[in-house]
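Problem 3 from the worked examples.
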Amino acid sequence: MLLVNLLKLLRICTKCGTEFPLSKVFFEPHKASAYGLRRKCRDCERKLKRERVAKQTDEQREGSLIKRRARRAEKREQYCAAARAIYARTIDHQRARQRSWYQQNHEAVLKSAAKWRNTHKELIKSRKPTWKIDPIKLSRAKRRWYLKHREERLVYAREYRKSNPIKVALALFRYRARLRAAHGDATDEQIKARVDFFGGVCSYCGGPHEHLDHAIPIARGGTNWPANIRPACAHCNRSKQNKTVLEFLAWRRDIGLVC
């Protein structure tokens, strides 16, 4: 078994029993150990260090902290270069471990973030949003990102429209109302209630419900409140144009359509 491990350049952690490649990525350097690497993996070494720190007294902990800070201050550039090199070599492993940790501690992270926001409300208010600091720079960055991921976003948009036709229709409906500066607004639940009130069919001809229509057109002073919204089929909605309900029903009678 030892010969096979040597040929494969693997080492088994003596603490957790997991097999890792024999390199500084997974084992800390140690001159007195075989191959110049410790026998315990980096994760196990970290756990042991935490346990040792937990057993220390406050004075011992403070003394260790002062020594460590002084050592880091002397060799700051060296430490930073080594950390960047290790992260560049193990970026996939590091990200996988970070994702795993976040999934395991998701609720704790959310609680910690909420607690920080509650205790730093004044600091949050004092900070300016990015778009207020430099809106032109932000818009250019968004444009560059979109051009880089344009094909992906187009595919996503097509799939979203297919899987969420009602949401897309509601968004377009509200957008047109905002363009006309219409008063009022309606939630998704209120619009659904209006559609159910008319039986889920076109309120003019009884056909399939495909569009949403303003009983009094916005162009003629209508609002975007729920009472002015009703379901309509595509044909009736396009035929109605800027007519009111009474005008549209009279027009349908004039051309011989049953109301």
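Problem 4, a separate protein:
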Amino acid sequence: MQLKEETNLKSHHVWESFQSVWVIYGWIYVAGVVVLFWIQPPHEPKVILLFATWCVWLAGLRFWEHTPRDSLGFGLVGYMLVGVGLWLALSWQKELFFSLMGVLFPAIFRLLTIKRASLVVSILAIGWAVIASERYKVPAFEAYLVAAFGYASALTIGWFIYRIVGQSLSRQELLTQLSETQAALVASERKAGGLEERRRLAGELHDTLAQNFTSVITHLEAAEAALDRSSSYLRGYLQTAKRVAKEGLEQTRNRVWTMRPDIEQHLPLEASLRRIGEVWTQENGIALECHITGKPYRVAAEFEDLFRRCVRECLLNILKHAKATRVDVTLSYMDHLVALDVVDNGIGYDVSLPASGYGLAAMAHAVQAAGGDWAVESAPGDGVVIAVKIPIGPEGSAE
């Protein structure tokens, strides 16, 4: 992995994992230089002042270590050059201070990117060669040769360290992606579990309530057949019980129909809605047309399921209340928006009056919880229009 110019090494990266170690090392190193300086007089005031200033500069590095690097620009480079300048001034005064390179090099490569570090180290190497040749009479060729060798060695070691850090960054990125993938899988399993729970509940309703209602009707019909014709009042009670049981059976079947996941889940949303309409027309004899506008695209499974549930609930409501002879279902694909309109030509109703059922209200709540809009338009004698809009993108969630 190639490091970018503004790579920001965060707390989980290699250098900062040993931040305190580098700080302690630097000050121990400086303490050793102080001891050597003290036992090698003379101690000129200007040298002491320069050294104290350099120590203040070194302490100031703590500020830069806790500041986001991408907000610094070249400010940190300038600060490093100030430290290098102070070091050069100290080295001109006393040869002992050349040894402070042992503190400067780790700080430069620890805090700067490789390109900026190479700039600062080049200035440091040239400055060292000038001082060695001019102040301490080292032959110019030897001074510049040593400086060039030291510069090349420093960059090689620094680049090697950056490659190690780069591998750490790459591993961290992979771990982050793995964590995100695991979270997505958990969410997917949770959604799949919700669909499976609805399927299980629908099956239990069918196997318990529906069968019980069927048994009640069977027994009531048998009792009615065995009654004496003179027991008309008892016959009335039995007929009422039979009627209530039949209504309960029908309601249970309808509720199971609206709750079960679509049988054709492998089909695109528009195809599965057409399938739902075909089955509903065959079972109830009411004409239903399904229209698709825009270029279809795949959306997340939970939103496809939500649209299917909306259609089923609307059709159930039409069957129970609308007295309609025609229904139009329109699915519209737009940029980052999918809209569903269910229109019937039934008797309509006054939308200002409180709703008596809970099915449509529950669907409206589900749509709004998904970040969408639910609207109902109707008037007595004008049918009903139910409009659902959910801002989603391809394979995406609600925006």
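Solution to problem 4. The first helix runs from residue 14 to 17. The chain has a mean pLDDT of 78.
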